[in-house]
Design a protein that fits this description.
The structure is a single chain. This protein is an alpha+beta fold. The chain has two domains: 2-165, Jelly Rolls (Sandwich), CATH 2.60.120; 175-293, Arc Repressor Mutant, subunit A, CATH 1.10.10. The protein has twelve helices and eleven strands. The chain has helices at residues 112-118, 133-137, 140-149, 156-165, 175-184, 193-200, 204-215, 219-238, 243-246, 254-264, 269-275, 278-291; strands at 2-3, 18-24, 34-43, 50-54, 59-64, 71-75, 80-82, 86-89, 96-100, 103-110, 130-132. The longest helix is centred in the C-terminal third of the chain and has 20 residues, at 219-238. The radius of gyration is 19 Å and the shape is globular.
């Protein structure tokens, strides 16, 4: 169901809304496959919506605890779409703007390694998209949703653990190579596809094929996305007065960083942070404290 596009800046005008947020670590058996579990609950004033944003990320399986909750998202400059009550968010290379009425969503973050085991299609096919989870993961994901809807919030991690362990037990034939790519993408010293290919000892054609299959994007875009997110979060931590020190050494200058921001966020970083809702700001701190990184796409794979 498509609706009219909404204004990402509207988050600034929203009155304070009741919010709840939780993050949990997955079972050690899922280390490197699942980045973490989350719960977001909002209750905006009657007749209003909660507006917020998701930063570029990997995969996320998300279940609305009330299937009737109206939740719409928009990737970049695209059209807004209604989120299915049991949804799979594909990997993203742009901000995902969100608006919803009152409701609660629980979710599991899935890494490229996890997708290699769990997914039935190339990640590129669902990049910058949200789709019904059953189309990609099968009908039994609906049973998972029913279990979560009938459980207490504290049971969410164990329920997700049990379901995912049962479906991620078999290794993928390219798993070792995918794991090496996953780790190398976060190395700030690898700035070009040539450097990445050489460091991994993988031909560029094979590297591109594996990146599209497991990560959703070509290696050049993945390197640029990682560089941008590192710089964005360094800027957030350091504040605007330290912007020259925050940006990655791979940028020629601050203007280069700003050009990248327009691609990944659709605007300048300062405009993006002003437009973000309170849940985004709170999530950075809580995700860092619980899961070890302020962004899913910056979570390091298992050693």
């Amino acid at each position: 169901m498509k609706v009219a596009a909404f204004d990402e800046g509207s988050a600034r005008a929203d009155p304070p809304a009741a919010m709840r947020m939780d993050y949990w670590k997955p079972s050690p058996r899922l280390e490197g496959l699942v980045s973490g579990y989350h719960l977001y609950a909002v209750a905006p004033p009657q007749g209003q919506v909660h507006s917020d944003v998701f930063q570029p990320a990997w995969f996320n399986l998300r279940i609305l605890l009330d299937p009737q909750t109206r939740w719409h998202v928009r990737y970049g400059g695209g059209e807004a779409v209604r989120v299915p009550d049991v949804a799979l968010f594909g990997p993203s290379s742009t901000a995902c703007w969100s608006q919803s009425d009152a409701g609660t969503v629980v979710g599991a973050g899935i890494t490229p390694l996890g997708w290699a085991r769990l997914g039935s299609c190339s990640a590129a096919k669902i990049a910058n998209r949200v789709v019904p989870a059953r189309d990609m993961l099968g009908e039994d994901v609906e049973a998972l949703a029913r279990h979560l809807r009938n459980a207490a919030p504290g049971a969410v991690p164990a329920i997700f653990d049990a379901w995912l362990i049962g479906r991620m037990g078999m290794s993928h034939r390219d798993e070792d190579t995918i794991a090496r790519i996953f780790s190398a993408l976060l190395d700030p010293n690898l700035r070009t596809v040539g450097q990445l290919s050489h460091s991994l000892g993988i031909a560029s054609r094979q590297l591109e094929r594996l990146c599209l299959r497991a990560f959703g994007f070509a290696p050049k875009l993945l390197l640029r996305r990682a560089r941008f997110l590192r710089s964005l979060h360094a800027l957030i931590r350091g504040g605007p007065g330290r912007r020259a020190l925050a940006i990655d050494a791979g940028y020629t200058d601050y203007s280069h960083f700003i050009r990248e921001a327009h691609e990944f966020l659709g605007m300048k970083p300062t405009q993006f942070l002003e437009a973000c809702g309170p849940m985004f700001t709170r999530s950075l701190q809580l995700r860092q404290a619980v899961l070890g990184a302020p962004a899913q796409a910056l979570t390091r794979p298992a050693a």
